[in-house]
Amino acid sequence: MKQFRIPLMLAPAMLVLIILFMGSLIIALLQSFGYAPLYGINEFPTTRYYKDLFSMPGFWRSVFYTFYYALVPTIIGTICSIYLALTLRKRFAGKKFFQYIYKLPLMIPYLVGVSLTILLFANGGIIARMLYAVGLIESTRDFPRIINTHSGWGIMIVYLWKQIPFSTLIIYSVLMGLGKESEEAASTLGANPWQTFWHVTLPQIMPGIVSATIIVFAFNFGNFDVPFILGGGFPNTLPVEAWRAFDDADYSKRLSAMAIVMFISLISGVLLFTYLMLYRRFERLRGRN
Amino acid sequence: MFRSFKENLSPFQRFYITFVSIAVLGPFIPLGIASFAFRWNWPNLLPSTWWLEARDESRRLLAWDYVFSPVSRVLEATGNTIIIALIVTAICTLISLPAARVLAKEKFRGKSFIEFFLLTPLIVPEIAVGLGILITFIQLGLAGSFIGIIIVHLIPTLPYMVRVLTSVFQGLSSDYEEQARVLGASPAKTLWHVTLPMILPGIIAGGLFAFLISSNIFLLTFFVGRGSIDTLPTLLFSKVSSGASLDPVGAGIAIIVSIPGIILLVITERFIKEEVFAKGFGG
């Protein structure tokens, strides 16, 4: 009886994930290799859909945009979050209130962030009107394109707005768990603030930073709605192209869609795995494990 | 005396805190104004005609009148969002509790693998899961149904729930349970009278979290709901998907969509302690 207790208690949660999550990934995988009897297609195993993908016009630009929109906000956001978390440890007027409000973006859907970005950063948006009011621009055409452009500024603004609170919360909570003793010791021993941060604080909060960057990057890499609305049209990011292919009237395109999402999953998996391994190695070099 | 650790903000940090506050709250001011506007042309900083001024002359329903009319389906979507999130939270709590308890209290082979596996939904691109599941659900007839949406919402909520509850159980001492058993309480009685009251605050925290995640999900609802079931996020998507501009109705819906999060922010400050996050992600 005893030996069945652990598997039995784990079973509900594990089964939900195995059936739903792994199941759907396996079906996507099979379809991407040509197994789709539902649409009268059964060429399994074929790599045709992957080959088609790599020769599709705009595919490599899609790959580039997907990387670019995911990576830039992850890096900028993480730096901003570390600094915000460190600032939050200090005492200041209105700190309690600030600790409430900075989490607001975390609590509301990405699409609200998208709506706000359209309202503020469209060419005739609030920011452009403010610049006009102070005489910096003369018409809507003088305002740089921020939304609906391949440069992706609008997309990255939404990611930063939503994700800085998320990463800050994780890093700040790790900081809270640490206490200040080792930093105070370093400071007493004559380390300057920068040395203290670099040699004492940063290594201790690294686990939190790694978790936050992994979650944020993986999210951005696979996100669909933000680039769909704020991106620059064809070619857009891989998830948007996958949805377009899936939504096509021609059902055989759905197999290409599956090939795209498998490609996204593979790339994101390899990247995150490499990142984790590098981090582990760094920890070993420091002698923590 | 050693040099005291600097406690006050530097001028740059003061600027930073101010900037973050404005960036977070500021955009809601024009959003509120936009929801009450009727005509708001370039380059006016305020609308030239407000909704209430145009209300009587217009034959169409405007701004908030439209938002609250059945035509906009806002109330229906709000109801859907709440019902789905409540059911998802309940199911998610029930299946996470036993797993979290085992992960917190027991040592067994393959434990770290299972812990990792339970987190994978956070790092596998949502679109891959979404399209794979949509194909399956179309075949099973679950696409476009409430049950289908509730089932897929379990995927992103489970990892967080298991993590939060595991940290709750880790903080729980087994002494009281053992005493209850020694004094002759049955396992069921111990669970009901001793364990549950002790972990209830943790369950509430995890539940609020799951509710929040479920009510914010867009992609999985959009894929599986297939336009026949709208929640607040999918409704807002159909309003802003053109990406060109935000009309008063869009602004109104964006405000409505933000309300559950704002309410939960006020409540969760009391329940979700920062340490729960630390245990969940910082290790």
Strand order of the largest sheet of chain B: 1-2
Instruction: Please trace the helix and strand order of chain B, writing H or E for each element.
Output: HHEEHHHHHHHHHHHH
* Main β-sheet, spatial strand arrangement of chain A: 1-2
Oligomeric state of shown chains: heterodimer
Q: Report the end-to-end length of chain B measured between terminal Cα atoms.
A: 35 Å
Estimated share of beta-strand residues of chain A:
under 5%
How many helical stretches of chain A? 13
**Sheet/helix structural class of chain B:** mainly alpha
Which consecutive residue ranges of chain B, at least 5 long each, have pLDDT under 50? 1-5
**Arithmetic mean of pLDDT of chain A:** 89
The portion of residues assigned to helices of chain B is over 70%
How much is the average pLDDT of chain B?
A: 86
Number of helices of chain B: 14
Shape of chain B: globular
Largest sheet of chain B: 2 strands, antiparallel
Shape of chain A: globular
Secondary-structure blueprint:
The complex is a heterodimer of chains A (289) and B (283).
Chain A: H1 2-32, E1 35-36, E2 41-42, H2 48-55, H3 59-88, H4 95-101, H5 104-107, H6 110-121, H7 126-133, H8 153-178, H9 181-188, H10 193-222, H11 225-230, H12 238-246, H13 253-286
Antiparallel strand pairs in A: 1-2
Helix pairs in contact in A: 1-13, 2-13, 3-8, 3-10, 6-8, 8-10, 9-10, 10-13, 12-13
Chain B: H1 11-25, H2 28-35, E1 37-39, E2 49-50, H3 51-54, H4 63-67, H5 74-105, H6 111-119, H7 126-140, H8 146-170, H9 175-182, H10 187-216, H11 219-225, H12 232-240, H13 248-271, H14 274-282
Antiparallel strand pairs in B: 1-2
Describe this structure in words.
- The complex is a heterodimer of chains A (289) and B (283).
- Chain A has helices at residues 2-32, 48-55, 59-88, 95-101, 104-107, 110-121, 126-133, 153-178, 181-188, 193-222, 225-230, 238-246, 253-286, and strands at residues 35-36, 41-42.
- Chain A is mainly α and 289 residues long.
- In chain A, β1 and β2 form a beta hairpin.
- The longest helix of chain A is centred in the last third of the chain and has 34 residues, at 253-286.
- The mean pLDDT of chain A is 89.
- Chain B has 283 residues and is an all-alpha fold.
- In chain B, 71% of the residues lie in helices and 2% in strands.
- In chain B, α5 (74-105) packs parallel to α8 (146-170), α7 packs parallel to α11 and α8 (146-170) runs antiparallel to α11 (219-225).
- Chain B is globular and about 75 Å long.
- Classes of the chains: A mainly alpha (289), B mainly alpha (283).
- The interface between A and B is large, with 104 and 95 residues.
